[in-house]
Write a structure and sequence with these properties.
There is one protein chain. This protein has about 350 residues and is an alpha+beta fold. It has three domains: about 1-120, PAS domain (Beta-Lactamase); about 125-205, Helix Hairpins (Orthogonal Bundle); about 210-360, Heat Shock Protein 90. Helix content is about 45%, strand content about 20%. It contains eleven helices and twelve strands. The strands form three sheets. It has a five-stranded antiparallel β-sheet with strand order 2-1-5-4-3, with helices on both faces. α5 runs antiparallel to α6 and α7 crosses α9 (about 255-270). The N and C termini lie far apart (about 70 Å). The model has no long low-confidence stretch (mean pLDDT about 85).
């Protein structure tokens, strides 16, 4: 009897020390799944004071309690149950994906742990897997899209050229070149431009990894981007408020790719603005990054759409490809930058871009 008590005491001390210093989250439970002990890693992951949870059902910590109960039943006939997937709920009611393992202990004394539960946060791993699958899918689509876009580009250029020739011919043959005729030709040009934008998006999708880095003045980059949108800005009489910081450090970027990213954002802002709307462009910097802020007092973005802003092929615009913001984010990511978007529906939208000052090695 004495030897058994000593053995159980040693087991208890060993488990206490082992659990305390183990790098993964650990909880020990009774045969019925009642929480007996845990480590600081488990407390940090859940944000819970597990002292308050002592004696409660461990399955209540998880999004699917029945799944955990099934695992506890399954471990009764086995020594170990490894690397199962589950979801734990933290203090803020956030769902955290985990891998979870169960080990049955040999302790038989009442009050001693019977099952050791080990789990690890897999949020980052899940995100990496998701990004990898998305990258592989889009890489395949980009290859196909690039081939198709190249085939479409030549006929489009021909259409645009022949539209100009057609207008010249009509003006020569028709003495009274009516506004209606001019309007019809304008529609043709507008639709050709839209098709060209779509082709550009798909071509960009196939060229995201191609970079030609040059040291670039961010203020000049923004001004060049504005110049490309002069016609749209002028047609809506948009008020542009430029707040460019002087003496900005240069950044190492692929000029054409980054210019395209800036154009995408400014174009979205202008399209969201009413006639004579307000658009503010700001640049700033610190020792590590340069920042670009694009702020408009336009329609804003509905909360439900904020979740899908960077989802490829998702668009709330009629006829949109759903690639604009996705490509913008990917271009910025390629340059080790960051893009953040904040908005209040029917009031304003603010886009912040941060790019590293040091030269980017790709």
């Amino acid at each position: 009897m004495k030897k058994r008590v000593e053995k159980e005491d040693k087991l208890k001390d060993y488990l206490t020390g082992f659990i305390r210093y183990y790098p993964d989250s650990m909880i020990t439970v009774s045969e019925l799944g009642e929480i007996l002990s845990w480590n600081k890693v488990a407390e940090k992951l859940t944000g819970l004071d597990l002292e308050e949870k002592k004696g409660t059902d461990v399955s209540d910590l998880f999004s699917d309690p029945l799944q955990i109960k099934d695992f506890l039943i399954e471990i009764q006939g086995r020594k170990e149950l490894k690397h199962r997937e589950a979801t734990i709920i933290n203090k803020n009611s956030e769902r955290i994906p985990i891998t979870i393992s169960f080990t049955r202990l040999d302790s038989k004394e009442k009050g001693l742990p019977r099952i050791l539960i080990t789990f690890r946060d897999t949020s980052e791993l899940m995100e990496v897997k998701k990004r990898l699958l998305e990258t592989e899918r889009l890489s395949a689509m980009g290859t196909i899209a690039g081939c198709v876009a190249h085939e479409i580009r030549n006929p489009l250029n021909s259409l645009f050229l022949n539209t100009d020739l057609l207008e010249d011919e009509i003006r020569r043959l028709v003495k009274d070149f009516t506004p209606k005729l001019e309007h019809r030709l304008g529609i043709i040009r507008k639709e050709i431009d839209r098709l060209n934008d779509i082709v550009d998006d798909y071509l960009s999708l196939s060229k995201l990894s191609a970079t030609d880095l040059t040291l670039t003045d961010v203020n000049r980059l923004i001004k060049d981007s504005l110049d490309s949108l002069n016609k749209l800005i002028y047609s809506k009489k948009i008020k542009i408020d430029e707040k460019f910081t002087k003496g900005m450090p240069e950044v190492s970027v692929d000029y054409e790719q980054m210019r395209r990213a800036i154009i995408n954002i400014i174009k979205n802002s202008v399209q969201a603005l009413p006639e004579q709307g307000y658009l503010r462009l700001t640049t700033l910097f610190n020792e590590d990054h340069v920042g670009i802020e694009i702020y408009d007092k336009g329609e804003g973005i509905p909360e439900e759409e904020m979740l899908n802003l960077f989802t490829p092929f998702y668009s709330s615009k009629r006829g949109g490809t759903g690639l604009g913001l996705y490509l913008t984010r990917e271009i910025i990511n390629v340059h080790n930058g960051l893009i953040e978007i904040d908005s209040e529906e029917r009031k304003w939208t603010k886009v912040n871009i941060f790019l590293p000052v040091e030269e980017v090695v790709l």
